[in-house]
Amino acid sequence: MMDGMGLAAPVVNGKLMQNTANTTAAGTKGTGEEANRKAGSAMDKDSFLQLLVAQMKYQDPMEPTSNTEYIAQYAQFSELEAMNNLSSNMDLQRATSLVGKEVIVKSTGASGETVYTQGKVDFVSSEGTKAFLTVNGKKYNIDDLDSVIDPDYSNAMGLAEDFKLSLNKLPNISGLSPEYKSVIDNLSDVYNDMTPYQKGYLGQDTVDKFNQYVERMNQLTSALDEEEKTE
Prior knowledge:
The chain is of the alpha+beta class. It is 53% helix and 17% strand.
């Protein structure tokens, strides 16, 4: 025992040695216990200082470790700690910049499949060194972020999908009648209000189909007008 510090690894000649018995036992555990073991092995600054003090206390007095080596060990740990803190801060800043934006996040479904969810980031939270996004009322790790959607793109895609849906609800051109004139007129208004960028998401096939309906409706209304004039 080492004055209540509870070190699991033995110290020999001032060096921390790996406990092979614990390592062998750990190798036989399930994946869940292995994950817990790794999580518990994370070393903070206080733990490192405790180990460093133990190394100094139990070093071989005939071959003491030099102060330079101690300083080098501490400097390496401090550098690693600073890098981890920087990474955590960058993750939080990145997450904060996404508030109010449309994103796609991924998660694992019940059967192990990847599930993609689209929505707006409502708010951001942090737990320890991890940053989390809340999308559609559910919390996601910042590492689960798949993509960020540009508002103009999202709007253009929405308009295009609605336009195609309305167009596909019309009967075949051969079955088109003047009764659908108001629908064609509404689609024409939507199309004319679209920007060139938004029209680009309709696809040429959709535009050609729409123009055919407009042309056919013009023919029907012209024929109807001629009939009314002759009566």
